[in-house]
Amino acid sequence: MPYLIDASNLGGALGGPAGARDAERVVEYLQEWARGRGRVVAIFDGAESGRVARRYGPLEVVWSGAGRAADDEIVRRASAGPRDWIVITNDRELGRRCRELGAAVESSRALARRIERPRPGSRRSKAETDKPPLTAAERAYWKSVFDREE
Predict the structure, then answer these.
(1) Quick one: DSSP state of residue 134?
(2) Nearest-CA neighbor of 40 among 48, 51, 32?
(3) Is the pTM of this model over 0.85?
(4) End-to-end distance of the chain based on CA atoms, in angstroms?
(5) What does residue 88 show for φ and ψ, rounded to 5 degrees?
(6) Which of 69, 104, 54 is nearest to 83 (CA)?
(7) pLDDT of 78 strictly over 70
(8) Are 111 and 90 in contact (CB under 8 A)?
(9) Packing angle between helix 92-101 and helix 70-79, nearest 10 degrees?
(10) Least confident of 35-49, 75-89, 97-111, 126-140
(11) CA–CA separation, 55 vs 57, rounded Å?
(12) Which residues contact 37 (CB under 8 A, 6 or more apart)?
């Protein structure tokens, strides 16, 4: 099932008021989780940031536009096929509006918990258990490889 994510709201759940304005961090946080999910749309409040792409594989990044709330864009998209979406938000009013349309609603906190505790056998949990952390010498080596000026 595809997801509509109140991205500024998720950012706030992750890092308070500063997190709500950190689109780069929210997008980075969602990228791995979005793989294999079909369609994930993260909708931010405000004008588009030139520092964030519009698409990262299945993760689409949308901006509500100046003077327009992401909530209205989420409701607009959900109303086109409400039973097709899971809306992620901690905003009670937005959740109510989407439920009234027929969309499923889940809290940002619940999504964050699921991302932090990956399913057994997922790429993330396998990588965390199969690979030991890099040593200082290994980090220095890879830094020398990738930080070279050409």
Answers:
(1) P
(2) 32
(3) no
(4) 45
(5) -105, 115
(6) 104
(7) yes
(8) no
(9) 10
(10) 126-140
(11) 6
(12) 2, 3, 58
Torsion of CA 8, 51, 37, 130, to 10 degrees: -110
Tokens standing for 21? 């304005």
Rounded distance, CA 8 to CA 20, Å? 4
Are 108 and 13 within 8 A, CB to CB? Answer: yes
DSSP 90: S
The two three-digit tokens of residue 100, written as one number:
């009234």
The DSSP code for 65 is B
For residues 53 and 96, give the distance between their C-alpha atoms in angstroms, rounded to a whole number.
30
Q: Strand 86-88 and strand 59-63: pairing?
A: unpaired
Domains of the chain with CATH codes: 3-118 (3.40.50)
Distance between CA atoms of 126 and 119, rounded to whole angstroms?
Answer: 10
Q: How many CA atoms lie within 13 A of 144 on its CB side?
A: 5
